[in-house]
Specification:
Pyruvate Kinase, Chain: A, domain 1, 3 domains, six-stranded mixed beta sheet, 15 helices, elongated
Length: 471
């Protein structure tokens, strides 16, 4: 398989609910498995977690696990047959709750928390595919269907002109976060974030996980700087975000979010309907191919598959296709080393990692070797987008899996710490040579802390076989 720097996140669900399919997903290139806690029981997620870890171990490569909590999403309730069809011109009552509804009355969770709804306001269902307009607000909200279609159980609803006033973490989210911490998830995606304090609240429930802020609301876009500062990364969740703002501005907003996130040395993820047609088709549309490629051109760390792999007919093929698109896009578009990232927080590490990326590019070095105990140094080098792969060596299993989400990083796990730097170098170089990342005579760039375990303070250009790999 051709090397790819952009990472692939695949959402797991009914279409991938067996260990063999998950094995195939890992083989096809899945770097991160997304567990969507809006659906499925804890038992199902625990089993899936175990299957992913087993598949990663068998393939001798890390796969990070991303727990996506539901958050306070406004959703319709349920219907007798699991769905209803709304026809244009039909008037429907909207009531608060999560109970059973029909084509005349739809229950909507958290509706009581949406303030300021007025006649003439738009209402969107199913990620904007179905549009209604409010005709009256008392004694009950009534809305007329403008654009009809099928609505299924628990699909999303949006009131773009209303003010959504609800806690960032629901009771279900709190329980799920504790459960995720017990499982040992690597990342938590926080849904419907509005401000930095929402991220801090998530961290209280799982201090060990890295938090990805999902930007799904216009209010979050306005608070982008403070959210990026607090989170470990940001996901451009274009489905809900595209309902809250005009569709024509979404490409610009996507680029702005990715640029702002990358500028802070944080993880950027692009999501929603990237290969949507592959829910049923075996090939993507030309527009979808361009969408994925443009996310790569924008500098995203990762691209995400949602329903394509969770409930689609061809989950493994969707990952294969996304891999091929990313590889080709990376060949066609080279990003130059940018400004210093995190220089205010890690001035020495920031300067050295930027220098490492520039030296590797200038000398045509294919592998940068990083020893890391936390993943920070690998993340900083990754953000400078060197042409070289970043072979990140760690002895920490948790760091090993987290590194799977970093652009251009190839994580490798050493079985133990070694008493001297020379022994550590020897063990690492043997591992890299065994796995085909380096060979005798290659020039590599080593980034490390001296003495080993201290903060990053040294970069060295070495040759495999004479200086790096030695008996």
């Amino acid at each position: 398989m051709a090397e790819r720097k952009t990472k692939i996140i695949a959402t797991l669900g009914p279409s991938t609910a067996d260990p063999q399919t998950i094995m195939h997903l890992v083989d096809a290139g899945m770097d991160v498995a997304r567990l969507n806690f809006s659906h499925g029981s804890k038992d199902v997620h625990a089993q899936t977690f175990a299957w992913v870890r087993a598949a990663a171990e068998k393939h001798n490569r890390p796969v990070a696990i991303l727990q996506d909590i539901q958050g306070p999403k406004i959703r319709v309730g349920t219907f007798p047959d699991g769905q209803i069809e709304l026809a244009p011109g039909h008037t429907v009552s909207l009531v608060s709750g999560a109970g059973m509804g029909d084509a005349d009355t739809i229950s909507i969770g958290y509706l009581e928390s949406v303030k300021g709804i007025s006649a003439g306001d738009p209402v969107y269902l199913v990620d904007g595919r179905i549009a209604l307009v409010v005709e009256q607000t008392a004694p009950v909200i009534k809305a007329r269907v403008l654009q009809g279609g099928v609505v299924c159980d628990r699909q999303g609803a949006a009131f773009p002109d209303g003010v959504f006033d609800v806690p960032a973490i629901t009771e279900k989210d709190a329980e799920d976060l504790v459960f995720g911490a017990e499982l040992g998830v690597d990342y938590v995606a926080a849904s419907f974030v509005a401000k930095a304090s929402d991220i801090r609240l998530v961290k209280e429930y799982n201090p060990d996980a890295r938090v990805i802020a999902k930007l799904e609301r216009a209010v979050a876009y306005k608070a982008l700087a403070e959210i990026i500062d607090e989170a470990h990364g940001v996901m451009v969740a274009r489905g809900d975000l595209g309902v809250e703002m005009s569709f024509e501005v979404l490409p610009r907003v996507q680029k702005e979010i990715i640029d702002a996130t990358n500028a802070q040395g944080k993880i950027s993820i692009t999501a929603t309907e990237m290969l949507e047609s592959m829910r049923t088709a075996t090939r993507p549309t030309r527009a979808e191919v361009s969408d994925v490629a443009n996310a790569v051109f924008d500098g995203t760390d990762a691209v995400m598959l949602s329903s394509e792999t969770a409930v689609g007919d061809h989950p493994v093929e969707a990952v294969r296709v996304m891999h091929r698109i990313c590889v080709e896009a990376e060949m066609a578009h080279v990003r130059s080393v940018g400004e210093d990232f995190m220089a205010h927080e890690y001035p020495i590490a920031s300067a050295l990692t930027k220098a490492a990326a520039e030296v590797a590019d200038n000398l045509g070095i294919e592998t940068i070797v990083v020893f890391t105990s936390s993943g920070r140094t690998a993340r900083l080098i990754s953000k400078y987008r060197p042409k070289a792969r970043v072979a990140a060596i760690t002895t920490e299993a948790s760091v090993y899996h987290r590194l799977a989400l970093f652009h251009g990083v190839v994580p490798k796990l050493l079985d133990r710490d070694y008493p001297t730097a020379d022994e550590m170098d020897l063990a690492a170089s043997r591992l890299l040579e065994k796995e085909g990342l380096v060979k005798q005579g290659d020039t590599v760039l080593l980034v490390a802390g001296v003495p080993r375990g201290s903060r990053t303070n040294v970069i060295r250009v070495l040759q495999v076989g004479s200086e790096f790999l030695r008996e």
